Every structure is written in C-alpha cells, then in structure tokens.
C-alpha cells in the first residue's frame, strides 16, 4: 500500500425503498420542529406533497422556487420566507438544483439540512455550493453546506425519465472517474469510486430498457451516493473544469455536458493515469475506459457531441482558452493544442480510440 491521507466527511445516510416517511424520525433526532421544505415546480405534485403530508405540523412551508444554477436573487427571495416562517431545519427534495438552493440557505443560516435526492447528480454528499450572481458562477466549499442527513428513497427516482436518468448517471460516473486519478486519491475513495462506476454502468442500460426496474433503480441510486461521496472527498480535474467552463460560459445543460465530455477527458488523461483507467475499465467490464464511456452514452441514446447540445463551433477556441485559465491539478499537463483537439473531437462526437 502506498502512503496516503484521508479525511472522512460526516454523513448519515438512510437508504431504501419507501424511506420518505423516515423524515420525521430524522427531524426528531436533530431536535428540530419547524421544517422549511424545498423543491422545484416539477415535484410540487409528487414527492414534495407527500413529504409535506408525512411531516404534518412539522412542515411549516413548501417552497417550489428552486431553479437551475442557484441564482442568488432566488436564494434571497426564499431566504425572506425562511425567516418569516421561523424555520429551524431545511429539507430539500429534488435534484441538484433544489439541493443547491438548500445549501445556499444553509450557508447563510447554518441550519441543518435533510436531503431527499431524486437524481444522480450527487450534490447531497458534498460540502460544495455553486451559485450564480449576474451570470457569474462561483463555488464555495464550507462544512455549513454539507447536509446532515441524506434519505435515499429509491421510489422517488421511478419518475426520473430514462433519458435524464442516463445523463444524470453518467454525470455521477464522471465524479468517480476523476476521483481515481485525483491528487488526493486514497484507497477508501478509490474503492467507492470503482463500486459506484460498476453500479451505474450496470444499472443505466437496464433503466433505459425498463425504467421501473426496482433493482436497477436501487443500484443507480447507490452508485450516485458512492460517486457523489467521491466528489465531496477529493479534488476534481480537467473533466470538471471543462464542464464548468462549457456550462458557465456557454449555458450548456449540466448533465448532458458531462456525458459528452467524459470520454474525451478520459482519453486525454488515460496515458498519464493508467492504473486509474484500468479500474474504470474493470468497473465497466470493457477493455478500454474511454471507449466504454462513449459507448455507454451512444448505445443508450444519450447525446455524444457538443453540437447536439447547443454548442457553436465558433466558440471552441474561446472554450479552449478558458480551460487554460487558473491552474488546477490534472495528471497530464493542460496544453492548448491537445485541449483544442479534445474539444473538436467532443464537438463532432468522435469515438475516442
Ligand atoms: P436538476 O435538479 O435541475 O433536475 C433536472 C430536471 O429533472 C429538473 O427539471 C427536475 O425537475 C427534474 N427531476 C429531478 N428529479 C426528478 C424525478 N425523480 N422525476 C422526474 N423529474 C425529475 O438537475 P441535476 O442534474 O440533478 O442537478 C444539476 C445541478 O446540480 C447543477 O446546477 C450542478 O451544478 C449542481 N450540482 C452541484 C454539485 C455540488 O456538489 N455542489 C454536485 C452535482 C451537481
């Protein structure tokens, strides 16, 4: 075993089918009685209403204001309601956008958070908050935003459409791939990464074939937790930087951008981190990690090119320049010409070889 350092993040996880009503026990354990519930407009009729019903008098308000990119003006508006209701706990039910709003409020109030994730993005397992102000995205790392309790109820994910499940699951896989070659890589997180990639790699095609497959939904949600924990524990590299640039500067959709870029970021780094990519390939049961990641998207009908998700070819130079700004760790040096070539391959959707 090589030398390593590892700091575990505190986490309480309740995982299973039909776990939503456990929220009252968790509130009780936290000693809280006035829960402010967050969701997005799509969940108003489904999970969020059931959650309010389960909470009864413990739920003081349901806000369905969450939107993409956690804009500060929305946070401030919801903050006023939070104060007016004298809430003592935040409960977020939804995907990364809803969880982002909960984290933004927790950052400002230090209230505890219980989170019920409905996608595979993994934000619930990280002490990271991304928010936008006047079109500028900034990232804050603080223990104040790490949720105290995560309740995974597999049944909440049954309604996630197959196409969204696929790109959201590949978004999760990206966290684990980058964790395997992170500067702070360690055996605990690397094992979790490999488990997470394997669970999602197996489950996503099954979900595409049968979105109501309970075992596949359960495996995928477990994989999301494993991969999200990787994102929370170690630093990310080229792949996440590129996706941040493409999402922030060109407004490309989050999970789809991860899906398109991942095979190309993997191909870029493969030679510099062979042991990490052997583990990715083993988890996917394929000889070549980058090719297998591309095939996972292509064979299941996810977008495989930047062109398909709204990027303009004339912006590729600007994207390459942005990817070179501000130094960050990556196993292979970040050089303009190879990065520009990577973006060209991703734009045209060429399978990495
Ligand atoms: P999202 O929360 O915006 O959800 C995408 C869409 O899916 C929404 O329309 C939502 O209503 C719908 N949806 C969610 N769950 C559903 C379900 N079970 N059934 C039907 N529809 C459902 O997107 P996301 O991909 O989950 O999250 C993306 C956001 O999360 C980005 O802003 C990203 O930056 C952030 N994020 C943050 C971190 C972090 O650590 N801070 C980690 C990952 C993602």
UniProtKB/TrEMBL annotation:
<feature type="domain" description="Fe-containing alcohol dehydrogenase-like C-terminal">
    <location>
        <begin position="167"/>
        <end position="347"/>
    </location>
</feature>
<dbReference type="InterPro" id="IPR034786">
    <property type="entry name" value="MAR"/>
</dbReference>
<dbReference type="Pfam" id="PF00465">
    <property type="entry name" value="Fe-ADH"/>
</dbReference>
<dbReference type="GO" id="GO:0046872">
    <property type="term" value="F:metal ion binding"/>
</dbReference>
<dbReference type="InterPro" id="IPR056798">
    <property type="entry name" value="ADH_Fe_C"/>
</dbReference>
<dbReference type="GO" id="GO:0004022">
    <property type="term" value="F:alcohol dehydrogenase (NAD+) activity"/>
</dbReference>
<keyword id="KW-0560">Oxidoreductase</keyword>
<comment type="similarity">
    <text>Belongs to the iron-containing alcohol dehydrogenase family.</text>
</comment>
<dbReference type="InterPro" id="IPR039697">
    <property type="entry name" value="Alcohol_dehydrogenase_Fe"/>
</dbReference>
<keyword id="KW-0520">NAD</keyword>
<dbReference type="Pfam" id="PF25137">
    <property type="entry name" value="ADH_Fe_C"/>
</dbReference>
<feature type="domain" description="Alcohol dehydrogenase iron-type/glycerol dehydrogenase GldA">
    <location>
        <begin position="10"/>
        <end position="153"/>
    </location>
</feature>
<protein>
    <submittedName>
        <fullName>Maleylacetate reductase</fullName>
    </submittedName>
</protein>
<dbReference type="GO" id="GO:0018506">
    <property type="term" value="F:maleylacetate reductase activity"/>
</dbReference>
<dbReference type="InterPro" id="IPR001670">
    <property type="entry name" value="ADH_Fe/GldA"/>
</dbReference>
């Amino acid at each position: 075993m090589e030398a390593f350092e590892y700091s575990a993040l505190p986490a309480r996880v309740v995982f299973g089918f039909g776990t939503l009503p456990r929220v009252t026990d968790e509130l009780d354990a936290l000693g809280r009685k006035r829960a402010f519930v967050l969701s997005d407009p799509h969940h108003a009729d489904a999970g969020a209403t059931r959650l309010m019903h389960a909470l009864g008098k413990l739920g003081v308000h349901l806000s369905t204001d969450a939107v993409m990119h956690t804009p500060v003006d929305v946070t401030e508006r919801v903050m006023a309601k939070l104060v007016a209701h004298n809430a003592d706990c935040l409960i977020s039910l939804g995907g990364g956008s809803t969880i982002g709003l909960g984290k933004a409020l927790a950052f400002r109030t230090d209230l505890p958070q219980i989170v019920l994730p409905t996608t595979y993005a993994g934000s619930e397992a990280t002490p990271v908050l991304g928010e936008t102000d006047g079109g500028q995205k900034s990232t804050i790392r603080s223990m104040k935003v790490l949720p105290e309790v995560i309740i995974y109820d597999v049944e909440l994910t049954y309604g996630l459409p197959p196409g969204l499940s696929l790109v959201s699951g590949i978004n999760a896989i990206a966290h684990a791939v980058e964790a395997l070659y992170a500067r702070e890589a360690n055996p605990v997180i690397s094992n979790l990464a490999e488990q997470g990639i394997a669970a999602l790699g197996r489950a996503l095609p099954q979900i595409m074939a049968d979105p109501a497959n309970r075992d596949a939904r359960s495996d995928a949600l477990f994989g999301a937790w494993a991969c999200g924990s990787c994102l929370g524990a170690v630093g990310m590299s080229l792949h996440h930087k590129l996706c941040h640039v493409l999402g922030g500067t060109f407004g490309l959709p989050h999970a789809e951008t991860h899906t398109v870029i991942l095979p190309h970021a993997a191909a870029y780094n493969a030679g510099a981190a062979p042991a990490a990519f052997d583990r990715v390939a083993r988890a996917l049961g394929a000889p070549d990690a980058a090719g297998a990641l591309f095939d996972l998207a292509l064979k299941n009908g996810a977008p495989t090119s930047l062109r398909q998700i709204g990027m303009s070819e004339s912006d590729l130079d600007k994207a390459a320049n942005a990817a070179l700004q501000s130094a960050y760790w990556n196993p292979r040096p970040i050089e303009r010409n190879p990065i520009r070539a990577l973006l060209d391959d991703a734009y045209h959707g060429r399978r990495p070889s």
